[in-house]
Design goal:
The structure is a homooctamer of 174-residue chains. Chain A has 174 residues and is of the alpha/beta class. Chain A is built from 6 helices and 5 strands; from the N terminus they run βαβαβαβαβαα. Chain A has 2 domains: 130 residues, Rossmann fold (3-Layer(aba) Sandwich); 36 residues. Chains in contact: A-B, A-C, A-G, A-H, B-C, B-D, B-H, C-D, C-E, D-E, D-F, E-F, E-G, F-G, F-H, G-H.
Chain lengths: 174, 174, 174, 174, 174, 174, 174, 174
């Protein structure tokens, strides 16, 4: 299994980001998209981070998802070494200022080196977006995404029905 | 020419966003990626916006780039009607609060409906990112992106050389 | 009871918003204003949300109250499909950035499509404001609002008296 | 004409707010809704401001629109003296901090005293919203609002067509 | 005792502000400055608030301290009805946005009607500042303030000494 | 004249603050309150700043008004050396971040050392507040302040009348 | 030991900052760099703070690390009295506004008086930076820093390996 | 001259930062400290940036000053490859959000990799701080810094005198 070519590399700056970033792994797993998880810091292990990104395309990877908190340079640094799409997840870590630092460090990339920024702690959305990218050339994944979309609509409507029932009792007018 | 299948739909909420969003068109044009430009408001023409997005995949489009300012709902609203990747460009329009409203309205999408957010006014990066997505299944585009990356590195190094020359004269000791 | 024409539609983007939004229901109930509660997401169930709003006036509804968190598009999206007054409640949900995203996504609507924005988590005020709207053509409701206003003034003055009494003991000179 | 009962009172804290607030007057005028314009400061003429609001309902007014900048207390102060709906317009005046002070001073009203807050400098939307309120009991106004909504959709679509035409020429692929 | 002329009126918008505002009362008590505590809302009891301020000077009061949270209009509204110095305390109440709304609503008063703003929850400093005002014409209070200043310096230096002792043990070299 | 005892010391951190701070001087001049203007930096001339403050009371000064931009330490540093009331004016200088740095550096003083913070660039209000302080023990100044308050109310009402006249013409209904 | 010349002075505004600032002491201790800890307030003990800084160079100190919260003037005030490098640590104390006040008060120093600002609560980084300064003229410290850097890289890589192992089990396809 | 060993490397992400960063060069020139200027982007020329930093110490450099705007990763990326002190200058470039992105991207570095952050556009202070670092082991530079400090104090005092003179005329009583 471990020599299967990973389509997506999930990279995070610190093990403390794992509880957020594993949401991405779970969704990819559900979609049966092969992936790898890496813990590599843009600042503490810059060479390893650079190498992972530099070699990603050659190894057959299609997309990089990178999450980090504080001065979150990881997604941008990975994007510097590849032309693969890089999806950034700002993490509201304990040392961040309510997440503003993580968001702005990932979002405000200069012209030429885009990073696709997700919502704060939006690791699941990063994986959905990665799936959407892969689905641009994979009919099977397109179907799965449509099913996923339909099922989440259904969940909202079911919840709406639950509320509607409660409403009948709560709503008292002579 | 106009019946060519567009790979990318560029949508903006108002004609006043055109000066920002045309940077996306220029890059796609340079990469010879077919695209269409649409002006559709999530609030003033919601049905047309919904229909554009709902039919995009069937028409053969692969990616939607959407730019808007203020309470920038357009990218999210388009993402609601498709499983194609949607790239959002927050526009610092005249009626926005320094761009914060545009950024947060696009970035903070709920779980299940990702929008890939670019930097404020980052329309060119949106087009580069769209190209990176298409390149995940197109070797030709991969090459073009690598050339583009190399040429922008070269431009920085040339600028560095210019500065270095100035430096020799500017830097006087004894 | 359930076929009574609702004057107010309370819509929220997620069941997690219910604990905030039920404050609106409670006040309307107290005022004996018929209402309905709906859970509909602008992003997960966009067609259902659009239809609810599109048909609201015809069904006899007068006002829509919509609450949402994060990139809170729901109030604006509902406003796109109706000319009924839409009152928006920014919800400080777990995935919002201290509420700033919810506030700006609701507040900064473009010219032509107003949403009346309440304070963060201000669902009760949304219901009071809805009542004020209905009272512009309903003498009975006007009286009720004046009574409500007087009674809340009275509560403040009673509290003031309690504090004044405490003051006598707390305030020791010589 | 001047003894006609005004349906809407437009109040602003300073004559410097007039260039923003006259957008409200223009729209009401277009809708043939009678209105008055008042310049009254919550801080410099508090008694006159209180009296205007206290007597508004008795004089037959239905709605108050109030705009102010900086520590924008005017809408809240007027709301304190009436049960009529008060619509607040935060004005980005020269002495405001990018409009944040105006927005927060108007938006964050305490429970019991709602102010319906519009976007920064959103005086036109305030007038549209006032019209929507009046239309809840006025079929004629409802029709006018639907016409207005349709015509603004049409304007967007016409602009879209213009862009589409340009697109044909701009978009060159061998 | 209660017919003693109060030098300072402490006013707060809600009993929930008492835990913050009583720090002001404690300091004034310590300085033996007569004061009164009032709970009066700028929005729920506007007439009572106006009257308290309007009559304050005539009753012999010299200074008003006013604390409020959210859209904190109370200090500004009181300042509108008097030429006594008004000291405002922004309160980080449960319904405020991290205190930013309270701060900006109090701080950004228009030209002509100053409110002296203290730090967030800075009720004790409000009382110290009130004492400094009274001390401009009261030698006795001047002395007390100097003693207070000296004693707080002393406390810091004593704490420094404690730390210095710890330091000796903590600081191990070779 | 120059040996007259100044009641108020106006201190600013840099000559570039003069255009803002001279509004304070103008008002004091109008009120015939003797004052001095000093340019002293908390960081570049710390000893001179400390000495000015330390000796202020002995020289007969009653109040210090201090304005500064950026990391605006001047008001707090002056307050450290005196028990006179210090009024701080945050200046939106060219090197400040929209004034937020100036505001927070002055506002958020620790317990024990209050600085009365005015609105951004609120130098005139600082002078009015200084006058209010002096008026707590000066009947003459009290009268002047009441006149000033009345005259600014009158100005607003006159402006209101001007607007009201315009209104008659602007407001056309059939 | 206590008469050893300290290379670094760690100063904090209040004993409540100790839990943050002792991270600096721990690192210096580990590096065997002699240091002193002082608790001195820029506002409560301004003379002692000034003297500490004024005499620091003469006593042989090379660097000052200063931490404070709220209107954090301490680092800037110390920098005013010395030409030694001053490193500032913004502390997110209980009375700060999410740390923004501490950051801006330390960061935005005027031209001429730099303070090297660290991340919020970044006391350990302050000590590392102080070590880097000392290492510019101390080969031994340079080696220690390189060892420290290598060991923190190693820790990240070990964590990466742990994650990689988990990955094998977590990652199930067919 | 050009083969002189540079003590300080000034690096900037783009030639557009030169107008800000040359203030650093000017001060170092004045202090006769040898320096080099480099234009290298963390994202466009990541290898060159890494190499510059990796080899800096070996080439004899003592300090790196790095300025960048937007998602300003350059200072942090350079710091990743060296144990030399790195001083970061957030630049308010045209594509930054009022400088907040630049500041937070530089300031909020993770534990282990400090960057000494200067004020927004504070390139001159970066050079002064670099000089202070070098002066910790260079008596000559210490003297120069003291002279510089004295001369900037003198400039403030001279300005104060100018103002004082103006004051005599401006300040008219009776």
């Amino acid at each position: 299994m471990e020599n299967k070519i990973p389509s997506v590399l999930i990279v995070m700056g610190s093990t403390s980001d794992l509880s957020v970033m594993e949401k991405a792994a779970e969704f990819l797993n559900e979609m049966k998209i092969p992936f790898e998880i890496h813990v590599l810091s843009a600042h503490r292990t810059p060479d390893e981070a650079a190498n992972l990104s530099r070699n990603a395309a050659q190894r057959g990877a299609k997309i990089i998802i990178a999450g980090a908190g504080g001065a979150a340079h990881l997604p941008g640094v990975l994007a510097a070494f590849t032309t693969l799409p890089v999806i950034g997840v700002p993490v509201k870590s304990s040392n961040s200022i309510d997440g503003w630092d993580s968001i702005l460090s990932i979002l405000q990339m200069p012209s030429g080196i885009p990073v696709a920024t997700m919502a704060l702690d939006g690791a699941k959305n990063a994986a959905i977006f990665a799936t959407q990218i892969l689905a641009t050339s994979d009919k099977e994944l397109q179907k799965k995404l449509i099913e996923f979309k339909n099922s989440s609509a259904k969940k909202v409507l079911e919840a709406a029905n639950e509320i509607a029932k409660i409403n009948k009792f709560q709503y008292k007018i002579n």
